[in-house]
Amino acid sequence: xxxxxxxxxxxxxxxxxxxxxxxxxxxxxxxxxxxxxxxxxxxxxxxxxxxxxxxxxxxxxxxxxxxxxxxxxxxxxxxxxxxxxxxxxxxxxxxxxxxxxxxxxxxxxxxxxxxxxxxxxxxxxxxxxxxxxxxxxxxxxxxxxxxxxxxxxxxxxxxxxxxxxxxxxxxxxxxxxxxxxxxxxxxxxxxxxxxxxxxxxxxxxxxxxxxxxxxxxxxxxxxxxxxxxxxxxxxxxxxxxxxxxxxxx
Length: 249
Fold this sequence. Notes:
By secondary structure, the protein is α/β, with parallel strands linked by helices.
């Protein structure tokens, strides 16, 4: 434990990593919510320099102000969890056109792209490759096994893990260089329900430790949207268009 009055390294609101024995490499992400924390059952004068609220909601304290116990986030998590944007919309609405524009734009950011294809020919994937060829910062992972929904969610988890591990390896190989990854973009198929995709980021410990849902963007075809929204469906079938719009930010 520490002694009150000693100057501490961090202030309330600072994002930190704590040695908890859980999470990646035994470190968990959190935010400092109180300085010089104590509990009633502790002996008089006993204080912990920090109380921290972990990203999973747990409250803990750091017994020492030491890098072995609490430290600044490093590597991919230096600026917090990786933001993930889900790009959805019905078939032909223009999702890939928007995504291809993002990949071509000179914004200086590095994105990983997870694209989902249903058909045998990955036409959208070819468009992405055309754009990707002009910039080397982005990486593309193609999931060619159906909709990104609960039945294939494990494949999404694997794709995210592969992307994170590749980015971590790149940062180790280039210490002190540019951040290896700024975010992840997921383009769903036109018939995908975004709900199960978003749940993935709360259900897998590795994914929830590194990533957070930053937003859901739904692209709508203004000419055909009403028709897509109101077309007849079999009993119990999901109205994908309605779900996609409902999940949009």
